Amino acid sequence: MKRFCALLLLAALACGKRGDPRPPVPIIPKATSDLVVTQRGSKVILTWSYPSLTTAGKNLTDVRRVVVYRASEEFPVAPAGSIDTSVPQPINPFAKIPPLTPAQFLKQRTRIDAIDASSLPSVTNGARLVYEDTPQIHTSDGRPIRQTYAVSTETSSARSDVSNLAAIVPVDVPSPPYDVKADAKAEGIVLSWQKPSDAKPDLPGYNVYRRGEKESQDVLAAPINTAPVSATTYTDTPAYGTFTYVVRAIASTGTPRIESEPSSAVTATFKDLASPPPPASINVLVETHAVRLVWDAVTAPDLFGYNIYRYQGAARLKLKLIPNPSTAPFFSDISIEPGIEYVYGVSSVDKNGNESAETMSEPVLVPRTP
Fold this sequence. Notes:
This protein has 370 residues and is mainly beta. It contains two helices and 23 strands.
């Protein structure tokens, strides 16, 4: 019996013995899912979120490189006489050709670049990566080429699945708009420009981009206009401040965005240019050695004060009576001379220096003292 118990004890101890060491679980980057593609000028621009998570949902710290892939599809040659030239052709010639499936892309893709970890900071814009490609736009006989892109993240020990596929059919785009001007007016900053000389008659329009004085240039920024601007002028009504603008000609509407390179940048400062209302009326009271003025107070929220003017003599010579605006709705003119006719004018001034029209008094004659 003792021998049997000893055997059971040895068996139990054997069950707790450690096994062979296992290799560490590989850290696999999570596949990118928000790759977006646009065209500006001759360049195709790819943007996507900086790789930051593993497939297990943990922080990714071991990024070795990001690989960029591209698959090119030439538009098929149409049989002679199969296209009715009297019918307008679709803007996107690939509209009826299904996009590549992930399996098809893996067979046709070409690795066009690898962004090493040391180069990632130079292509980072905020929380996104930006990559520029200059692919072939059309074949030698003029047929368009659809370009499909994907990216993959690699660590020192693993590689993510390829990202979502982003396709674009690049087209020839016009030159940027030129002679761009920005004028600050009371209603906003009025932009104007000239149509590119090489633009087609049916140019879809323009996109306008704005950057604040303390904002860095953002290649990913969306235009401030919600729809293509069909005219060669646009009025922006931002908050007060200094802004820089560029304008791009649109080559194709819809998604993805296809437009020209930016125009030359112009800068303008928008501030309050609207004048406050003038005083409703003014009363003039002749005293022994002075003319006392009293007027209706202006209730503008940005009112700073009032300018007071005097017109005298037959020539109505104008004189500003005080160097700085008065904050009170009354004033006594003690610099009068008896026997001279005067007319007074009072205007309101806001905090930005905008001045209203003058409210004029009736002529007043200061009598000579007997």
